[in-house]
Specification:
13% strand, alpha/beta, single chain, binds 3-methyl-2-oxobutanoic acid, 8-stranded parallel beta barrel, 275 residues, 11 helices, globular, TIM Barrel
Length: 275
Amino acid sequence: MSKQTPQTAKLTVPQLVAKKEAGEKITIVTAYDFTMAKLFDEAGIDSIMIGDSLGVVVQGRDNTLGVTLDHMIYHCHCVAMGAKRAHLIGDMPFMSYQASKEDAVRSCGQVLKRGKVDAVKMEGGEEIAEIVNAVVQLGIPVMGHVGLTPQHIKQMGGYKVQGRGEKAAKKILSDAKAIAQAGAYAIVLEGIPTELGKKISESIEIPTIGIGSGPHCDGQVLVCYDLLGMFTEFKPKFVKHFANLGVAVHAAIKDYIREVKSGSFPDEAHSYKDA
Ligand code: KIV
């Protein structure tokens, strides 16, 4: 498909992967519900990720560790109802896949089947390569995720840039290679220096999807509330607000309160007549 042809059918895994070879950047945004998913899908996004970031931006937790498989399946299904064309990736929550290949296969199968997504995402490097391979062998496409992996928050001691220095960079490069070797079709690189993002992108055949990893990755992903300027609790350096919807929502709600209190809403135009 040429860069100019609008995609109207569902974007498949091979089509997404082919974008790297074609030199076309892959666009991904997170969503957690029907309305946002429909808007993003209609705007032409390549892929929507139902991230376990929902634990923070939807559920109000401090981190993603408390998100359950049922939460993920519920939100994946909501998004699948709204997105007809975008490739859908369901994030695997903490401890739904790490303990054994059996756990991973069952959990990923549930997210794919009941969540109606096209692929799943798992955080981790060499230590989960065999698990990734077991899931891929059964026909479930897996996106990897290395670098700053939020499910390792307790170990990392905070959301800190990873892979600084030669030894740490080497480890993340070999993690990415192990996950690609295990059969993942793409991999998220989160919170690593630009040069390392470039090196990994040049070293593996599958597309790299950057978030806080510089401009050389094969695609980018952002959390939708960050992108839209709605989540303002904290703003990492890599986040760009492409809109200021937080301010717009605030103003709209203030107008609504004022009009209801003053009696100017609902007016005749927004009320039913008898016949
Ligand atoms: O949970 C999430 O939303 C993610 C992406 C931001 C990569 O993992």
